[in-house]
Amino acid sequence: MKNIDAKTQGELEAAAFRRLVEHLRERTDVQNIDLMNLAGFCRNCLSNWLKEAADERGVALSKEESRTHVYGMPYEEWKERHQREASSAQLADFEKTKPGH
């Protein structure tokens, strides 16, 4: 991407982020713990990163607002509809690989 200007690069990165969020909204079968175990981040991480970016720019965005944006609904509603109890194997994997968040 060395031949792409900064504005276009930002637009492309923003489009990729929107696509990732859309994909994760559609894939409710993929649990956050699975994402954490395999990739080291989850939907909550994305919403935290979004909030941190807003904070850095002085943009008012609450934690709940950033989560609602990433999940496509209030976080508690998503958990009620889609989150399953983590298995002992998932929890064991998480303990081995969890990043420092």
UniProtKB/TrEMBL annotation:
Coiled coil: none
InterPro entries attached to this UniProt entry: SMc04008-like_domain, SMc04008-like_sf
Domain of life the protein comes from: Bacteria
Protein name from the UniProt record: DUF1244 domain-containing protein
Pfam families: DUF1244
Region of interest: Disordered: 82-101
Organism: Microvirga mediterraneensis
Domain SMc04008-like residues, every copy: 30-96
Gene3D superfamilies: SMc04008-like (1.10.3340.10)
